[in-house]
């Protein structure tokens, strides 16, 4: 019949012929080509995107198993696609389709990452994958086993081990010498030292006789009385009322009769008449000692322990009261003829001749009154003026 055609059963389907350049272009090939066009190696991409070079190679090889955290794969793929000026969503969909990777979603049983499925690899003449073992310069090669070891570090480690070994051997040698016990062979049989008498067989060549010959030891009672306390040998008895009975109320006490009062009653005959001494309850006042300057003079007063009490230039008419201490202070003056001492208002001195430096002068009333004479007012006009002025001020 015209216009009708028929096909035999079992006839082969029409197969479209493929040319020499008709092949499937994968995502990894496209990305490697774009990266090669930019002239970037995997290390350059790692330095610029802050993504490991191994992750970039895994994206180009569509191998999700190389990632430590599958949740970051989507971000890595999109970032690398933007870096190559590709569509991020299309690149990620293509990566998932080629590698079989699926993102985790929801809480279902399928919420897990699917490992990459084996795909057809392009092998070279030796049966190796041309992309995983590429010889191109932009693919980083694996580091050698000994590439991270520094020769200088090896030398330092060897020196350190030698030092530790030397110290350990020296310590072990010293320990062995300390613990070593040496025995010396002797012919004499050892004996116990405690059984030996050091004075056995010793004799005195001189015969001095018995030094205690003719000595009579005192009796035991005499020795007892010699070392017996006096209180036990001769008891001291004191009358209980004797101190009170010796007091005379007419001589001492707060109830003494006044002079114009009636005569006191006759004293008791048995009370002894005695002179009651005056009881001193306080110590006598310490004489006041002053340094009196009649002309300018440098003065330094130092305590017995070395502490400087006063140091400076005393002007004419200036006085300095020396503090009363247990140990007397010492004086050093540059102009000895311009300084006098005043002990309870009586002037002594001067310290020395004019223009002479005097040192180590003991500032005590007893020493000054003994070693210095009374000041002569007629021989020093400046002293007489200061003393007269002081007397007038005191009188007013």
Structural notes for this entry:
It is a single chain. This protein is an alpha+beta fold and 396 residues long. Among the domains are: 118 residues, 434 Repressor (Amino-terminal Domain) (Orthogonal Bundle), CATH 1.10.260; 107 residues, no CATH class. Helix content is 30%, strand content 10%. It has eleven helices and eight strands. The protein has a four-stranded antiparallel β-sheet, covered by helices on one side. Strands 3-2-5-8 form a four-stranded antiparallel β-sheet. β6 and β7 form a beta hairpin. α2 packs across α3 and α4 crosses α5. The radius of gyration is 63 Å and the shape is elongated.
H/E element string? HHHHHHHHHEEEEEEEEHH
Low-confidence stretches: 1-7, 106-116
User: What class would the helix/strand composition place it in?
Assistant: alpha+beta
Relative strand content: 5-15%
Q: Please, how many helices?
A: 11
Given this structure, which CATH class of one domain is correct? Answer: Mainly Alpha
Could you describe the largest sheet, including whether it forms a barrel?
A: 4 strands, antiparallel
Number of separate strands = 8
CATH superfamily of one domain: lambda repressor-like DNA-binding domains
Distance between the termini: 173 Å
Radius of gyration: 63 Å
Strand order of the biggest β-sheet: 4-1-6-7
Give the overall average pLDDT: 75
Label the overall shape: elongated
CATH architecture classification name of one domain: Orthogonal Bundle
CATH topology of one domain: 434 Repressor (Amino-terminal Domain)
- Share of residues in helices: 25-40%
